[in-house]
Amino acid sequence: MYIALLALIYIAFISLGLPDPLLGAGWPEMHLSMDVPVSYMGIVSMVISGGTIVSSLFSDRLTRKLGTRYVTVISVFLTAAALLGFYVSDKFWMLIVFSVPYGLGAGAIDAALNNYVALYYTSRHINWLHCFWGVGTVISPFVMSYALTNSSWNDGYLIVGCIQIGIGVLLLATLPIWKVNRPDSLENKKSVGLIGALKIKGVPCLLLGFFAYCAAEATAMSWASTYLVEVRHITAENAALFASLFYIGITVGRFVSGVVSNKLGDRKMIIIGTCVILCGVIVLLLPIGEISALAGLVTMGLGCAPVYPSIIHSTPKNFGAENSGAIIGIQMASAYIGSTFMPPIYGVLGSKLGFGIFPIYLTIFALLMITMTELTFRLTSKKEQ
Fold it and tell me: For residue 59, what is the DSSP state?
C-alpha cells in the first residue's frame, strides 16, 4: 500500500507539470488563430497565476476540510476541464474564462501535495517527485509540437486534457490507498490561518527567501535565450538549445539530490545549491564563448535543483506539522508572485540598462534567498531551544 501510494503521488506530480509549458509552446499559433497581439499571452499567464495564488492561500483550509486525496482528485479534474476548455476556445475571452479554473486547480494540488509529501516522506522522495514534475514539463512541449505539426494547437490541449482525465480517474479509483498514512489526525484540526501563520517567528523570512528563489529560477527560464542572443551574440537556434539545458540541469539535479539529500539534510542542500548557482553565474560570465554559456546554464540548473524541494521539506520540521499546511500554502503563493512579476521586471530593466544585467539580477535574488533561508533556520532552531 505504501509503495502504491507513492507511485500515485509520482503520477500526480507528472500531471502537475504537464500543463505548465503548453501556453508558451502553443502561443505563436494561438495568438494568430485568435487575431490578438503576441503580448496578450501575458494576460492569460497573469489570470492563471492569480488563480494559483488564491487557491494556494486557501489550500490548507480546503485540505483540512476535504483531505489531501480529495483535493488532489478534484484539482486534477478541474485542471482537465480547463484544458478541454482551451481546446474548444476560438475567442480570446474564452481563454481568460478557462484560465480561472486552470489556475485554481494548479495552485490547490501544488500546495496540498507538497505539504503531504513534506509531512510523510523523506527529503529523497520530495526531490525525486519534483524531478517527475520536470518530466511532465518535458513531455507537454512534444505533445504541442505533434499537434501543431499534424493539426492545430487545440489538439495539444485536447491530448493533455485527456491524459489529465485518465490520471484523475486513476486517482479516484485508488482513493482508499491514501489511508495508509492516516492523515486525518492532522487534517481535521483547525487551521492556523493566513494571519496566524504570518505571526509565527521565521515565517516572513522564509516567504521572502522562497519568493527570491522562484524569482531567480523563473527569470533564468524566461530570459536565458535573450541574454545569450543579445549579450553573448549566440545564434537564436543555439540560444534556445542552451536555454533548454537549464531545465535539464534542474531535472537531472533533482534526481541526484534525491540520492544524497537524506544524508546531508535540507539546510546543507540549500547551501550547496546556492553555491552551485553562484558558480554557474561566474562560469556564465567567463569570456570563453559558447562553452561558458552552456556550462554556466547547466551549472545554474543543477544548483537550483535541490533548493525548492528542500525549502518545502524543511517546513514541517521548522514550524511544526500542525502549521505546515498553512505555511506551505503561503509559500506557494509567494512562489507564484516571484515567478510571475520578477521576470517582467527584469525585461523592463534589461531594455533600459541592457540585458547584460542578467547575471547580476540572478545573483541578487540568490543571495537574498540564502540570507533569508539561513535566517529562518537560525530563528526556528533558537525557538526549539
Answer: H
Q: For each successive 10 residues of the chain (385 residues), what is the average pLDDT?
A: 81 84 83 87 86 87 86 92 94 95 88 85 85 82 87 92 93 85 56 78 93 92 82 77 77 89 92 94 85 87 92 90 86 89 88 90 95 94 59
Domain that holds residue 31: 2-191
**All cell numbers assigned to 382:** 533558537
Q: Could you give the C-alpha distances from 227 to 174, 256, 324, 356, in angstroms and in order? A: 46, 28, 38, 7
> Which of 137, 171, 191 corresponds to the end of one domain?
191
Domain end residue (candidates: 174, 191, 208): 191
Interatomic CA distance for residues 323 and 249, integer angstroms: 32
Check if the beta carbon of residue 196 is closer than 8 Å to that of residue 329: no
CA nearest to 363, candidates 215, 250, 237: 215
Q: What is the CATH number of the domain that holds 114?
A: 1.20.1250.20
Give the pTM: 0.82
**Burial (Cβ within 10 Å: 0-12, 13-18, ≥19) of residue 333:** buried
Evaluate whether 109 touches 52 at the Cβ level (below 8 Å): no
What is the count of structural domains for the chain? 2
Residue whose C-alpha cell is 540585458: 355
The CA-atom distances, in angstroms, between 58 and each of 61, 64, 108, 201, 370 are 6, 10, 8, 21, 27
